[in-house]
Amino acid sequence: MRIALKLRHQTWVPSFVTNFFGKELGGGRKKEEELHGKAVKVLDLLHHAAELGHTDALYALSQLHLFPPNQWFPPEPGLSYEELSSHASITGNASSQALLGFFHATGYKDIVPIDQAKAQLYLTFAGHSGHKGAQMAMGYRYWSGIGVVEDCMTALSWYEDAAEQVMAKFMSGPPGGRTLPLVPAKLSDLEGGVFGPGASVASTGLNAARPVIKTANARAAGEKWDDLLEYYSYNADRGEVDFAYRLGKIFYQGSIYGSTGGIASGGDGASRVVRDFHTARHYFLRIARQVWQRDPPNPRQYQTPKEKNPPSAGYAALAAGYLGRMFLRGEGVKQDAAMAKMWFERGAEYGEKESHNGLGIIWRDGLVDGKKDLKKALTYFTAAAAQDHAEAQVHLGKHHFMRNELKQASVYFEAAVRSGSPFEAYYYLADIQSSIARNPATPAEIAGSSCAIAVSFNKLVAERGLWNDNLLEEAEIAWNSGTDRGKELAMLKWWVAAERGFETAQNNLAFVLDQDKSILRFTRFAPQSPSNDTARLALTQWARSAAQRNIDALVKLGDYYYHGLGVADEPKTTRYEKAARYYQSAADTHMSALAMWNLGWMYENGIGMPRDFHLAKRHYDLALETNTEAYVPVMLSLIKLHAKSLWHTILGGEDNLNLWTFEDAEGGASHFLPGTLRLRC
């Protein structure tokens, strides 16, 4: 039996055997029966409480039926809709109304027909009751014209309400604000982009250096973060200070890759690791002790050395900045502003920017003995901002913003955005642009531009501040479970988030539903015919993602119209023309070599646009200029194009299909005469 229990962990053993071992020999079947019994009991108790008029039990039932937490609770979206309807009618609860709006907006599982008017009604009530998700959904609907006429100012009002909630939550945290959630990853990015590495805009050019693409490359190479951490630990234990510092950063931010902009900017969600403040402090303290062997009995008695040009502290100064921040915020240690100030002063001796920023917060807010000194605070913030520290630039911008010096404030906020600020700077810039848009004296064209900027920035703030109801993170966990039930739950959560305007959720949902991945689609080996309903849903999500500046999604839209996926009822001519327009829109960004190649092929074959070999060659050339990885397909296409043109010219053609001309000695053009061969484009 011991041997059998060990065999169940071997990958070469058939799954039906390991399942048997797990259930029969490991006691799994008995445990399953116990858990199933507990789930039935929970549902029975909640049903009984709901029948007795307990509205919280009614809402809990609706959540269990719509978002079952595990396999013991079966999904029952139809029951969930009925329970949400009852709960909303009895209590007017905003959360129930928001989910009812989702059902009517999407027609999920055909429980109710799609009715955008009813969706609008439920979401409006929920939004006015303060439900942030409903406010975001309303803002997105007015911004995109879903069920309503596009109205930027109305969209701005809804997104402002959501962003204000998020900012209030952010400011309720420790000094410096709450820790930002990690940036969620797109499923397609983890595979090198929608079209794979090399062909997708998401993984070519400057985008190839994005943390999520580095993570995708690491996964493709079979690397695991546990192996990386073990390697770093091995080198750190040998006294390699740079590896110890990297480990401290990784465990502090809970991610292998941090965002630009400083400590406060968060990290990448694709390279997530378990966050461990105690381990981070261990490594930072080990580094710092190489310069500061001991601490004074009273940190308030610490005095900065008078030496004007102290020797370089290297990583110790950087570690001091992190240690000061941890004491300032109570992360892994007891919150102690005096200790924080001591560590910040140590780092500031060596000009470390995080330490300058931390001292600015302490003096501005009077966190040590209530002593405030705005002049000192501004001096420290300026020193950090001069080193492109995003958070310090935000603090300087806020200082001018509070004094109504909006022009100077904008300068600092814009500098913070360039330095990598992912949150606060956008909030205040949105407020400034909103005031411009609402000013009656502002010209209409400027007001419209300011409104669009304000909506975009408020939307970004509302979507980043997900400390509660983080649908993207919950969906990621469900998807990574690997079970069919988990994947179905993940898609539901992405769908809810997509209706609230999250481009990541729209991309994920479209990518999962995408039926145009197989290169065999148009051969006799093609898989079964795609579902037009599923393709239509994917097309909708691709369109919404493309409208939020996802270039690969824009190319996908062209593919769907070209292949007739989700638009089978439209005539081919119309579909090809629309496909060409989408490819052209993507090509105009000068980032998608694939879109340019597609356009070249359509010009070459006269599909969706007039046949023109000159424009075909031009787009093939542009594809290669945009992405050198397109060398092989572009060269093959050019060879074929010139062969076609040569045959056309031999037959006497002289129109836009003739790429071949000869220049005679007089400089005139003639065909097939001695002279210098020139390819014309």
Automatic annotation (TrEMBL):
A Gene Ontology biological process in which this protein takes part is: ERAD pathway
SMART domains associated with the record: SEL1 (SM00671)
Recorded superkingdom: Eukaryota
Matching entries from Pfam families are given as: Sel1
Which cellular component appears as one GO term in the record?
A: endoplasmic reticulum membrane
Q: Which SUPFAM superfamilies does this chain map to? A: HCP-like
Q: Which PANTHER family match?
A: SEL-1-LIKE PROTEIN, SEL1L ADAPTOR SUBUNIT OF ERAD E3 UBIQUITIN LIGASE
For this chain, the family text in UniProt reads: Belongs to the sel-1 family.
The protein here is known as HCP-like protein
